[in-house]
Design a protein that fits this description.
Radius of gyration: 23 Å
CATH topology of the largest domain: Aldehyde Dehydrogenase, Chain A, domain 1
Keywords: Oxidoreductase
Pfam family, one: Aldedh
Family: Belongs to the aldehyde dehydrogenase family.
Organism: Geobacillus proteiniphilus
Strand order of the largest sheet: 14-15-16-13-12-18-19
Number of helices: 15
Number of strands: 21
Structural class: alpha/beta
Largest sheet: 7 strands, mixed
GO molecular function, one term: oxidoreductase activity, acting on the aldehyde or oxo group of donors, NAD or NADP as acceptor
Strand content: 15-25%
Low-confidence stretches: none
Number of domains: 2
Mean pLDDT: 98
CATH architecture of the largest domain: 3-Layer(aba) Sandwich
Bound molecules: 1,4-dihydronicotinamide adenine dinucleotide, 2-oxoglutaric acid
Length: 488
């Protein structure tokens, strides 16, 4: 007899309580590995719900800021411990909700724990400098104050790490927070917020409102009582959010797309370069803003690199991320799958040569999920859509080059500038690459993806609003400097 398990409905978190939307509407969050598996129901909230959350955050902010940074940090340490204790459950929920492998989901959840501990420690670090004054009787220094209420709009591709790397610094520097998670991963977000709830944060300091981007996301960007907005997602939406915040004089930070290159020099360790290209381009099914998508290879090693790459890609096991054998899970949603398939069709239609993959996977249980094969194109003109637009799927394009100079020039021929890497042993190549590549994250003999929480992260050109997240750089967005002059 089939066992019927009740599907849980998750709630918004407003002013320290779990509450449903006033609309009473909910939507299912489904498993991309099996469209018949509903992970949970999440609220489809209204502006009324958002207003309540923003009002709670505004009300709580002054007393939160009155506490010392060290005290605020203590709450983050508690949340970190709870997240660590629930790592298995939260990682499993993440895999079920957005498809990445359980190993990746566990690593991401642990990354969330580290980020919380890092920013907990920030509560005890300096927030200003003493600056010599021309007046010998005066004391001049800088200090920092929070923005007030911060709106966090987060995507589905890192459903634990991204909300945490935005919320943790916001909170430790004295802001209160309203999170709007991506609907695709709102159950995972609710489980993260449960850790904040049980850590005992005062009412109203942390809030979460689930719902559509156009209502709740845009509502945050427009809200007169939201003093800062931090966003990660697509360029189109990011610019909309930035414009709305700018119009009303709020501070904003946008982390958006990439079209990240890897350069393989003729002296590269080809096995290492192949591993880095596969891991950077195809892990998480290519759904990282730092994912590798364009591979520039010096002509002398083009064929051997291609052969090794094809050999390795053939070995990758596609399947449900919960299965320990799986290397690559499904796309996170049906719409994401359709986007990827339409880019593959465009690639073929515009004349690129498909040398691997290119199809939806429909064998056996895969038919119920949103699976696509890892896909590789060659004979790609740099003006083709697949060489210019962010695909956010497991699609690589191979482009031969005659020199590292040419590779860097072509790699820079994009509106994006998030991450880039080079595989080479030549110090001259390395130094030229570091100097000339237009990317905020530059890697040498390492894959384009993978961001460490203690270092600044952000892009050049259209990949970001030119600010940086994470590490100590986060203080620049989440606080404002006051210059103080004191005379007795
Ligand atoms: N840079 C990154 O890490 C990410 C990039 N993307 C890119 O975006 C493409 C589409 O993915 P989506 O999930 O649709 O991204 P999206 O940009 O629509 O969603 C990101 C977040 O913004 C919210 N949002 C949507 N419309 C909004 C609006 N009008 N105002 C304020 N917030 C809004 C969403 O609900 C979500 O929380 C992907 O194919 C990929 O190219 C998506 C997710 C993450
Ligand atoms: O590469 C990473 O670890 C982080 C990537 C990221 O921030 C993103 O995809 O949004």
């Amino acid at each position: 007899m089939a066992v019927q398990t009740e599907i849980k409905t998750y709630l918004n978190y407003i002013d320290g309580s779990w509450v449903g939307s006033v609309s009473k509407n909910v939507e299912p969050s489904i498993n991309p590995a099996n469209r018949n598996d509903i992970v949970g129901y999440v609220p489809r909230s209204t502006l009324e719900d958002l207003n309540a959350a923003v009002a709670a955050a505004k009300q709580a902010q002054k007393s939160w800021w009155k506490r010392s940074g060290i005290e605020r940090g203590e709450y983050l340490y508690k949340a970190a411990l709870l997240l660590e204790q629930r790592l298995e459950d939260i990682a499993e929920t993440m895999t079920r909700e957005m498809g990445k492998t359980l190993a990746e989901a566990k690593a991401e959840t642990m990354r969330g724990v580290h980020i919380l501990r890092y920013y907990a420690g920030e509560g005890a670090r300096k927030i200003g400098d003493v600056i010599p004054s021309s007046d010998s009787g005066g004391l001049m220094f800088t200090t920092r104050v929070p923005l007030g209420v911060v709106g966090v709009i987060s995507p589905w591709n890192f459903p634990v790490a991204i909300p945490i790397w935005k919320m943790a610094p916001a909170l430790v520097y004295g802001n209160t927070v309203v999170l709007k998670p991506a609907s695709e991963t709102a159950v995972t977000a609710a489980k993260v917020i449960e850790c904040f709830h049980e850590a005992g944060f005062p009412k109203g300091v942390v809030n979460m409102v689930c719902g559509s981007g156009s209502v709740i996301g845009q509502g945050i960007a427009n809200h007169p009582d939201v003093d800062g907005v931090t966003f990660t997602g697509s360029n189109t939406v990011g610019k909309q959010v930035g414009r709305a915040a700018f119009e009303r004089g709020a501070k904003y930070q946008l982390e958006m797309g990439g079209k990240n290159p890897v350069i393989v020099a003729k002296d590269a360790d080809l096995d290492l370069a192949v591993e880095g290209t596969i891991s950077g381009g195809l892990r998480s099914t290519g759904q990282k803003c730092t994912a590798t998508s364009r591979v520039f290879i010096e002509r002398e090693v083009y064929e051997p690199f291609k052969e090794k790459l094809l050999e390795r890609v053939k070995q990758l096991k596609i399947g449900n991320g919960m299965d320990a054998e799986t290397w690559m899970g499904p796309c996170a949603s049906e719409s994401q799958l359709n986007t990827v398939l339409s880019y593959i069709e465009k690639g073929k239609a515009e004349g690129a040569k498909l040398i691997y993959g290119g199809n939806r996977c429909t064998e056996g249980e895969l038919a119920n999920g949103f699976y696509v094969e890892p896909t590789i194109f060659e004979e790609v003109d740099l003006q083709m859509t697949i060489a210019r637009e962010e695909i956010f799927g497991p699609v690589l394009v191979l482009i031969p080059v005659d020199s590292i100079e040419e590779a860097i020039e072509l790699a820079n021929d994009t509106e994006y500038g998030l991450s880039a890497s080079i595989y080479t042993k030549n110090i001259g190549n390395i130094l030229d690459f570091i100097k000339d590549i237009e990317a905020g994250l530059v890697k040498v003999n390492a894959e384009t993806a993978g961001v460490e929480y203690q270092a600044p992260f952000g892009g050049m050109k259209q990949s970001s609003s030119h600010s940086r997240e994470q590490g100590q750089a986060a203080i620049e967005f989440f606080t404002t400097i006051k210059t103080v002059f004191v005379k007795a």
